[in-house]
Structure formats: structure tokens, C-alpha cells
Write a structure and sequence with these properties.
306 residues, alpha/beta, Rossmann fold, 2 domains, 6-stranded mixed beta sheet
Length: 306
């Protein structure tokens, strides 16, 4: 009999890799989707939340009896809520009404305390991100909580190195390109670092909202692709991470998310839609027989109210 997991945290990672059947490039290339919705909270953020908490436990930043604080668009908050529930740490989350109600309710169910920062018409903007960060900083200073500070926390990179090794193993090393949208930049950076150690010729594409293309030199703006596009160049971003930056609009991302549901049976959020739009563009440029891997960041069940 196989050994059973000690707790739900051991069920994080080792997700499936699936080839799209109907949403495919015209040139015969393959698009493979890493199904991160298989993680316990339905999001890839389970990986990084666990890595940040365990690193802080290991070096004493988070001791027994301590508490945790973070600002989040939702998925990181839900993942931290899960980790903290299992490990017994009180968690204070700063979020916003710009994000799906399902995520906020999920955090509450898992025991997190929420502080909501109001948005401008439900849109992601640079000001909203900075207001959330400042609110979390104040809470951490006043309560002595461990602040995971995801936009600056490099502990999460190790989680994405592991994700890259899973991709390498699942493709038997036959991968020509990797595509990922940029929120904190940790998932793109960590995965790209590990894939390039395996094969430096793998093409890396970053994805950002067309309405707020700050990574590619454009002006900050408002958009509705949850979880990506902070509105400024985030600290973990490095200019040499990506060979190319693709701009994908909220409309394009939402339309592709709907296509994934109706044509592939994959119910995902708009960040996943943006990933697939950019992956198709890369496949067409790379040529026939290419294999492009991108991420199904989370489940669309988190966005039903949107």
C-alpha cells in the first residue's frame, strides 16, 4: 500500500501536463498546459506560499506562536490561508474589491482575517497595488507579524524551480518554449532559470496586460486580468528573464478563457487565457513540430462572480 500523505500540504505539486486538442497552432506545433488547478486550493500559488512559509520557519523569521500578513489579489491569499490553517498561524490578509468574491470568501473559510482596500471601478491599477502593500506593511509593523511580502520574496523561486523540473521530466526534455504571465514575476523567473539550466536554447516569453504594458516600456494603466500586471516594474523582474514580452488585452484573455472551457473542457481564469494567447503566438513563430509549455494558473471556479 502506498504511504498516505500526512496532511494536505503534501498534495501540492506534481500536477499533470496536458496537450490542447482543439486550440492549436496552424503549423502543427503542440501547446502543453501545466494543470496547476490540481493543487489543493486550485492554484499554482500553493507552491510559492508553502515555500515562503517553510523558509521563514527554517531560519527563524516565523516562530511557533507567530502570525503572518500579506497583500494579495486573491490566489496567494487563499494559498497562504491553507498553509496557515494547517500549520496553525493566524493570518491577516490585505485584499481588494477588485478581485473575485470567491477568493475573498475562500480565505475567510480557511480562517484568514481580511482588510479590504477599495478599488477604482473594480479595476487593477498601480495605485491599488501600492495601497495594498502599504496597508500590509503597517499591519506587520504594528503586530510584529511575519510579512511574506510576495513582490520581494525570493524564497518562492525554489518552488518554481521544482515546477520546471516537473515540466522537464514530463516532456522528456523536448520543450522549445515556455510562456507565463507576470504578477510577482517569481513563477516566470524561477521556472525559466531552471529550464535554462537544462537547455539554454528554450525560448522564454513573458505576458503582460496590453492595457498596462510597463515591462515592455509602455504606460501604466487599468485592466481586469486578475493576478498579473501590478502596474509598475515589480522587484523580482529581471530584464534578461524573457526573450520576448507579449501584450495581451483583457478582452483577448477573457475570450480565450471562454474558448478553453468550451473547446477543451478546461475552466480557467483570464491569466490562463492570456498565457494561451501568447503561447499560440510563440508556436507560430517557432515553427512546425515545436512544443510550447504554458501554465493553467488556477481554476475558473474562483471567478464565477466575475
Amino acid at each position: 500500500m502506498n504511504e498516505l500523505p500526512r496532511n494536505i500540504l503534501q498534495c501540492i505539486g506534481n500536477t499533470s501536463l496536458l496537450a490542447l486538442r482543439n486550440i492549436v497552432p496552424a503549423n502543427g506545433s503542440r501547446i502543453l498546459l501545466k494543470l496547476e488547478n490540481e493543487n489543493p486550493t486550485g492554484s499554482m500559488k500553493d507552491r510559492m506560499a508553502l515555500a515562503m512559509i517553510e523558509a521563514a520557519e527554517a531560519d527563524g523569521r516565523l516562530a511557533a506562536g507567530g502570525s503572518v500578513v500579506e497583500y494579495t489579489g486573491g490566489s496567494t491569499g487563499v494559498s497562504l490561508s491553507l498553509i496557515c490553517a494547517v500549520k496553525g498561524y493566524p493570518l491577516h490578509i490585505v485584499s481588494s474589491d477588485a478581485f473575485a468574491r470567491e477568493k475573498l470568501e475562500h480565505m475567510k473559510v480557511l480562517g484568514a482575517r481580511l482588510q479590504i482596500v477599495r478599488s477604482e471601478s473594480g479595476r487593477m491599477t498601480e495605485k491599488l497595488t501600492r495601497d495594498m502593500i502599504e496597508a500590509a506593511r503597517i499591519i506587520a509593523a504594528e503586530t510584529g507579524s511575519f510579512w511574506t511580502d510576495q513582490l520581494k520574496n525570493t524564497d518562492q523561486l525554489a518552488a518554481y524551480h521544482k515546477l520546471a523540473e516537473e515540466i522537464w521530466s514530463q516532456t522528456d526534455g523536448r520543450i522549445d518554449g515556455f510562456v507565463q504571465s507576470v504578477g510577482t514575476a517569481a513563477s516566470l523567473r524561477g521556472t525559466a532559470e531552471a529550464l535554462r539550466r537544462r537547455n539554454e536554447r528554450i525560448g522564454i516569453v513573458a505576458v503582460e496586460p496590453a492595457e498596462s504594458p510597463v515591462l515592455s516600456g509602455g504606460r501604466t494603466g487599468a485592466h481586469k486580468i486578475e493576478g498579473i500586471g501590478a502596474g509598475f516594474v515589480v522587484p523580482l523582474w529581471q530584464q534578461d528573464i524573457a526573450d520576448r514580452i507579449e501584450r495581451v488585452s483583457t478582452e483577448e484573455a477573457a475570450a480565450m478563457a471562454m474558448r478553453l472551457a468550451r473547446e477543451e473542457g478546461l475552466f480557467a481564469g483570464t491569466s490562463t487565457g492570456a498565457n494561451v494567447v501568447a503561447a499560440l503566438r510563440l508556436a507560430e513563430r517557432t515553427g512546425p513540430d515545436a512544443t510550447i509549455v504554458t501554465i493553467m494558473c488556477d481554476t475558473g471556479m474562483k471567478y464565477l462572480s466575475k
